[in-house]
Amino acid sequence: MENYPRYRLAIAPMMDWTDRHCRFLHRQMTRHALLYTEMVVADAAIHGHRERLLGFSAEEHPVALQLGGSDPVKLAEAARIGAGFGYDEINLNVGCPSDRVQSGTFGACLMKSPELVAECVAAMKRAVDIPVTVKCRIGVDDQDPEVALDTLARQVIDAGADALWVHARKAWLQGLSPKENRDIPPLDYDRVYRLKAEYANHFIGINGGIQTLDEALDHLDRVDGVMLGRAAYHNPGLLIEADRRIFGDERAPVDAVTLIDTMCDYADRHIAAGGRLSHVTRHMIGLFQGMPGARRWRQLLSTEATRADADSDVIRKAFAEIGENAVEAA
User: Is residue 330's pLDDT more than 60?
Assistant: First the structure.
């Protein structure tokens, strides 16, 4: 564990959500949390439009690239490409239950092939000098989580994995949709705690259903890191207190006015480069939850920001609906 930074908090990789614009927003609110990309398939990293798929802003660090695949050679090459882009970590997806990854024999179905996962990790470790980690489930389908998780953990740790992030649910590859797999299989945090007790000298992080920083702190009594997913995406404001409460950083967090100014400048740069305002603002809709004016904020960003000619004035107009409430709350 001494070779892996103390990432006590991370924001989970989420398909269609944690793109570079989402990560830039999250970084404004936490200096220290590890941010993850969406999963990028190894073949796409090798053969696709690399800047579009892998490019990110320097301000996003620390940021990890999550890869999907099951071919050790391709994953090693994709890891080399990611390291060349400057990522701080390469993560292997062994948890996604979608039909697309099942058809490609990667994601959660790799829980059934721990030896292959270990080969992939070993190949990636040989290819790069940055940490290589794994994100997995506690098991799939009819697997016994006691056996399945221990077997995978032993194999990947022996292969050199620097950390194991565990979504504390099974994945049911047959019968449940990817969305249902995020909610229906019961959470079993104790299973992850037992894994950490067994691997006291290795970084074990926990993911799944964690909604608040209070919950995160409770988990950190038992594991090394906590990964927030949908809670951080739908209510990004909860990250504002993360540096102080999770990392002990007593510096003042970002205030609302500075946050909006920064995001407006960022949006204008994105638009000048050929992008659209909605690429940025779709990740900002959950800001200011519970404040007077938040409903109007959401309405304006959901409608006016989608116009082809929209610019950062839409953000400022929406922020005016929050006004002094946001300043006082900050």
Answer: no
Tell me the Ramachandran region of residue 188: left when phi exceeds 0, alpha when psi lies from -120 to 50, beta otherwise. beta
Task: Please tell me whether 135 is known to bind a ligand.
Answer: yes
How sure is the predictor about 324, in pLDDT bands with cuts at 50, 70 and 90?
low
The predicted structure's pLDDT at residue 272? 97
Is it the case that residue 327 has pLDDT exceeding 50? Answer: no
Q: Residues near 52 by Cβ (< 8 Å), separated by ≥ 6?
A: none
Q: How does 164-185 read in b/e, with b if 16+ C-beta sit within 10 Å?
A: bbbbbbbbbbeebebeebbeeb
The model's pLDDT over 4-14, given as tens digits with 9 standing for 90+, comes to 888 999 999 99
- Given a cut of 50, whether residue 140 has pLDDT beyond it is yes
- Determine whether the annotation assigns residue 209 to a binding site: yes
| 16, 38 contact by CB (below 8 A) | yes
**Is 23 annotated as ligand-binding?**
no
d(CA 159, CA 153): 10
Contact between 174 and 141 under an 8 Å Cβ cutoff? The reply is: yes
Q: How do the domains of the chain map onto residue ranges? A: 9-247, 256-329
Active site residues: 96
Topology annotation, domain 9-247: TIM Barrel (3.20.20)
Q: Is the pLDDT of residue 51 over 90?
A: yes
**Pair of tokens at residue 274:** 């050929």
CB atoms within 10 A of CB 271: 17
User: Is 274 annotated for ligand binding?
Assistant: no
Residue 299 is labelled as binding a ligand:
no
Q: Please give the pLDDT value at position 328.
A: 43
Residue among 290, 257, 269 nearest 59 (CA)? 269
- pTM of the full structure: 0.94
Q: In this structure, are residues 220 and 3 in contact, taking their beta carbons and an 8 Å threshold?
A: no
